[in-house]
């Protein structure tokens, strides 16, 4: 009876721990050490092409396809976009305000000259986060956990 009770308690704790981790999207997160968003934004060239792990509050989510989220940095006004391959990962449209742990590759994004793409694939008011007007950096997401 004692062994059965311990097994049930252990199983309950394992299930509780899985739920406490959050919803997983894409590949399993393999990195352990987090990189501060502010470090990436301060020296983006240093991180370009490197795989990083970031954590932060979700400021915005693509309401069209769930193909990107914006993550807040540690300092006021800082944010970085996490873009994923369309259809491979779909972020929930109600994730705004939740915390995300994201692993991905830092990438330089050049301004898009294809205005048709923005009008056809994404209905945005003002700037299209997927097609910035100036050179910027984002994270091409490989895997995420949203808590």
Task: Give a description of the structure.
This protein has helices at 2-21, 37-42, 44-47, 115-121, and strands spanning 23-26, 51-61, 68-72, 79-83, 99-109, 136-146. Mean pLDDT is 82; it is low at 5-20 and 116-126. It has one domain: OB fold (Dihydrolipoamide Acetyltransferase, E2P). It contains four helices and six strands, in the order αβααββββαβ. It is of the alpha+beta class. The longest helix is centred in the N-terminal third of the chain and has 20 residues, at 2-21. A hairpin with a 6-residue loop joins strand 3 (68-72) and strand 4.
Note the run of SSEs as H and E. HEHHEEEEHE
Taken as a percent bin, the fraction of beta residues is: 25-35%
State the CATH topology: OB fold (Dihydrolipoamide Acetyltransferase, E2P)
Distance between the termini: 36 Å
CATH superfamily: Nucleic acid-binding proteins
CATH C-level class is Mainly Beta
Task: Tell me the layout of helices and strands.
Elements: H1 2-21, E1 23-26, H2 37-42, H3 44-47, E2 51-61, E3 68-72, E4 79-83, E5 99-109, H4 115-121, E6 136-146
Parallel strand pairs: 4-6
Antiparallel strand pairs: 1-6, 2-3, 2-5, 3-4, 5-6
